[in-house]
């Protein structure tokens, strides 16, 4: 199936009544969850997985993608209205978005954020449409050695995923990997680290870790912090209308950051957060009036909002075409796909073109929904933030437990959920980043498999990795992605 | 020696790494397998040892060294954990509806919600909606327990 033909069939799925309904549900749920300070896209996607159990994989993925960019958009809403970014990707949005809200122009700020998100998201999708199949056609020739090298690149992205200490990020990654070794070893049939518990023989379910480490840990933090801070939502958000001069000012940053954000999103490890900060810094440097940045500059709001949405689309390139997640969020999406019985990778494009293109097409629709439905609904959605926190917390916990139980029908997983919730909470207290944990948990199993497959092919000889030029090039990239951030941090400190 | 939080964590991680390595070395090995089931775990254990040693000597920032949780919050948190354990213990015997209703009501109460009527209505309606959604729409059976449906 060719690109255009594939896209048309994708639009057929996305424009079906079912498709439209679930994109809308996804976008709406994502917006709401992303808006809650603390709960980001990872939790949003993890919480939505149980709902998608009985679904057709295409529809499920269409909904998840909606949740993903809905959460990014929702995050910007709470950044603007509350100065409390729902997710790290929208921290930069608060720099100029909140000052605008304080000036009584919250409506304008929300409109700018929504339009920038739309532009960034849409340009990102067009680029995704062009590049993902291209990358998939190259990756189809990949064997176990190349895959091993590729996963090593994705894992070393941990270095750039870390916002604080590099060592802590790597420790988090190693521990995540250790949990991936629990269960029966596929090659020799040896039970590893199961301690005689039959419940552990099939390994630890990814959803248990995702919900525990993110949703439950974040809830623990809400319990500790939420009651201290009072919500002062700007009830009157003012007009949503933009003037011609506003649009003119947005033009430059929106165009530049759509492309820059996308490129950053494709790179493993660098997601929406890094894209939004780089976008902000670049525009500030380019601006003739940099002193306005931080005081309610339209450019300063447009840049991170465009960049983070473009990066969100960019992150789908390695996920859909290589089956390799480059960030914590896409790692959870990959896990969601595996739960649904879909194996992403270069063959997805060949074997399940409807799913591949359906998701891409649904992203167009999702972006339109974000713009025309969410924007006028924002004042009402933001009222949901007024739901008493104790009620909200108990409902979210119930939902997590239900989700975990419904995947295995085993209460053992609820205890595990609690354990990972505590681990996630302690990690956060001690400032260990959680995304490297989930990334290496998901990649760990796949990586070990490809390493052992490669060495079985070569009968134990390491030469197999040196013979492949692609693998060698990827090893060099992996090495550089550890050395460069380490070196940079050294020179900064 | 264990002045900073980083150092305490490093020692804890050391213990975890050693335990992990101990169990990794005890995994049986097979002939004719180029890379055995214990190979990667051993590498991971050693990596954790090395990384926690680096952490031990890393300078901790001041903020990092304070774990401020006040006692009431900690008690609330432990209360929620206990409720989760109770939920898991009774889910299959009492059924999803009853256990979830109790959980939502008491968890909200514990966290300070005092509008009992609203709390009770939500604690009954939300699990009921989930139950119907899962059993009828998604065809996923949830534990019925002592309930007749």
UniProtKB/TrEMBL annotation, chain A:
Q: Which residues form the DUF112 domain?
A: 20-439
* Keyword Transmembrane on entry: yes
> In the UniProt record, does the keyword Acetylation occur?
no
Which stretches are transmembrane?
20-47, 109-131, 138-159, 165-184, 204-224, 259-282, 319-342, 354-378, 390-408, 414-443, 464-487
Sorted keywords for this record are: Membrane, Transmembrane, Transmembrane helix
What's one Pfam family the UniProt record gives for this protein? TctA
Protein's UniProt name: Putative tricarboxylic transport membrane protein
From TrEMBL, chain B:
Q: Where are the transmembrane segments?
A: 9-27, 39-57, 78-111, 117-134
InterPro entries (alphabetical): DUF1468
Source organism superkingdom: Bacteria
Q: Where is the DUF1468 domain?
A: 10-143
Pfam families the record matches: TctB
> Keywords assigned by UniProt?
Membrane, Transmembrane, Transmembrane helix
The answer on whether this UniProt entry bears the keyword ATP-binding reads no
Record's protein name: Putative tricarboxylic transport membrane protein
Species source reads Virgibacillus chiguensis
């Amino acid at each position: 199936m060719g690109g255009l033909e594939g896209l048309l069939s994708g639009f057929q799925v996305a424009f079906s009544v079912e498709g439209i309904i679930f994109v809308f549900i996804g976008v709406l749920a994502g917006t709401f969850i992303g808006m809650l300070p603390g709960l980001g896209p990872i939790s949003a996607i993890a919480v939505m997985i149980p709902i998608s159990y009985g679904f057709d994989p295409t529809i499920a993925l269409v909904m998840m993608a909606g949740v993903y960019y809905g959460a990014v958009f929702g995050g910007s809403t709470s950044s603007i209205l509350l100065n409390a970014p729902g997710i790290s990707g929208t921290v930069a949005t608060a720099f100029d978005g909140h000052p605008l809200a304080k000036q009584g122009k919250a409506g304008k700020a929300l409109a700018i954020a929504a339009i920038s998100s739309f532009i960034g998201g849409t340009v990102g999708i067009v680029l995704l449409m062009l590049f993902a199949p291209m990358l998939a056609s190259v990756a189809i020739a990949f064997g176990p050695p190349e895959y091993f090298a590729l996963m090593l690149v994705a894992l070393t992205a941990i270095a750039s995923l870390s916002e604080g200490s590099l060592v802590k990020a790597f420790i988090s990654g190693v521990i995540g990997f250790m949990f991936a070794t629990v269960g029966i070893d596929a090659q020799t049939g040896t039970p590893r680290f199961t301690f005689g518990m039959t419940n552990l023989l099939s390994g630890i379910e990814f959803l248990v870790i995702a919900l525990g480490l993110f949703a439950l840990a974040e809830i623990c933090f809400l319990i500790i912090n939420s009651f201290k801070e009072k919500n002062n939502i700007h009830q009157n958000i003012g007009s949503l209308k933009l003037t011609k001069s506003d649009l003119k000012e947005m033009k430059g940053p929106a165009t530049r950051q759509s492309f820059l954000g996308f490129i950053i999103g494709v790179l493993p490890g660098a997601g929406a957060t890094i894209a939004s900060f780089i976008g902000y810094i670049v525009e500030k440097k380019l601006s003739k009036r940099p002193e306005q940045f931080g005081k309610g500059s339209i450019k300063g709001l447009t840049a991170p909002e465009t960049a983070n949405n473009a990066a969100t689309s960019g992150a789908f390139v390695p996920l859909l075409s290589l089956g390799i997640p480059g960030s914590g969020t896409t790692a959870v999406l990959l896990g969601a796909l595996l739960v649904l019985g879909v194996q992403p990778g270069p063959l997805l494009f060949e074997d399940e073109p409807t799913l591949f293109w359906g998701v891409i097409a649904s992203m167009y629709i999702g972006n339109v929904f974000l713009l025309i439905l969410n924007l006028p609904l924002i004042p009402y959605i933001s009222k949901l933030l007024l739901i008493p926190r104790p009620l909200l917390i108990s409902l979210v916990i119930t939902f997590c437990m239900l989700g975990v139980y419904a995947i295995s029908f085993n209460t053992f997983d609820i205890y595990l959920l609690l354990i990972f919730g505590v681990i996630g909470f302690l990690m956060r207290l001690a400032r260990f980043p959680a995304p490297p944990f989930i990334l290496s948990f998901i990649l760990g199993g796949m990586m070990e498999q490809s390493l052992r497959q490669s060495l079985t092919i070569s009968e134990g000889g390491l030469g197999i990795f040196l013979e492949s030029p692609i693998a060698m090039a990827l090893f060099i990239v992996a090495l550089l992605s550890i050395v460069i951030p380490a070196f940079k941090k050294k020179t900064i400190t | 020696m264990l002045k900073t939080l980083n150092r305490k964590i490093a020692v804890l991680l050391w213990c975890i790494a050693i335990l992990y390595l101990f169990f990794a070395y005890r995994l049986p090995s097979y002939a004719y397998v180029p890379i055995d089931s214990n190979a990667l775990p051993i590498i991971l254990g050693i990596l954790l040892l090395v990384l926690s040693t680096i952490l031990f000597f890393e300078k901790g920032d001041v903020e990092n060294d304070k774990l401020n949780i006040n006692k009431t919050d900690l008690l609330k948190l432990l209360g929620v954990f206990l409720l989760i354990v109770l939920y898991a213990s009774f889910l299959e015997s009492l059924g999803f509806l009853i256990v979830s209703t109790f959980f939502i009501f008491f968890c909200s109460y514990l966290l300070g919600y005092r509008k009992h009527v609203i709390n009770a209505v939500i604690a009954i309606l939300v699990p009921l909606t989930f139950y119907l959604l899962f059993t009828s729409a998604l065809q996923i059976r949830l534990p019925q327990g002592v309930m007749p449906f």
